[in-house]
Amino acid sequence: GAGVSQSPRYKVAKRGQDVALRCDPISGHVSLFWYQQALGQGPEFLTYFQNEAQLDKSGLPSDRFFAERPEGSVSTLKIQRTQQEDSAVYLCASSLALQGAEQFFGPGTRLTVL
Amino acid sequence: AQRVTQPEKLLSVFKGAPVELKCNYSYSGSPELFWYVQYSRQRLQLLLRHISRESIKGFTADLNKGETSFHLKKPFAQEEDSAMYYCALDNAGNMLTFGGGTRLMVKP
Predict the structure, then answer these.
(1) How far is A95 from chain B (nearest CA, A)?
(2) Which one of A43, A104, B7, B17 has the largest count of C-beta atoms within 10 Å of its C-beta?
(3) DSSP label of B59
(4) Do B95 and A106 touch (CB under 8 A)?
């Protein structure tokens, strides 16, 4: 079956622009995660949903970052007034709602802020 | 707070040589640890987890709670093992904390 998909795959934004990144999880996966991966580093947790409920947003770096999953399926990560330090790969992952369950990752969206 | 450390950014070995990718963690609870791998132009994928105690593609990893380590090992490296390897810890909240990654290069 289809894996996790993300769009767009690449996004170039001018500093100060708003961007929206989309994630389509694997059908039936209750849990959805967003991670940020800066160049040369490992992924860092941003936020986590179980169905439509955002259970943890402790990793969001500032109030310019906002995520939603209104129907418990597709999720959108929005970044307002982008800054150069927001340049990174944004990864989405989904999993079954079991502790220690494997997270399945999407291909990521590479955001470049000029 | 939990933390995962991979001390080597790059590990280069010849084909057929043994490989050990180091991972150390700090976590106050009982950890669940994973190794994820990213091959060139592919997405991040699970390689193995400590609870299953499996050997995947010839790789094994043993959780050593005394040394707080979860090193990844393979007795004979193959060229197709060249990839980025990430050690990760799952806390009770299900989020993964990743190490910085090690790039493994297996030379012919």
Answers:
(1) 10
(2) A43
(3) B
(4) no
